[in-house]
Amino acid sequence: MRLTDPERIRAMTRPWRGKRYANGRPQVANAVLARLQTVAVNDACDVLADYGFEHNYAGDWTVLCPNQVLVGRAVTCRWVPIRPDLHDAIIARGAKDGRIGFPNSWVIDELIDSDVLVADLFGAINLVGDNLTTAIKANGGRGMVIDGGLRDLRRIKMIPDFCTYVKRIHPEAIPGVTMPEINDVTRIGPATCLPGDVVLGDGSGVVFIPPHLAAKVADCAGDYRKAKSNAMKKEHLHP
Question: For the chain, what are the domain ranges?
Answer without folding.
Answer: 6-234
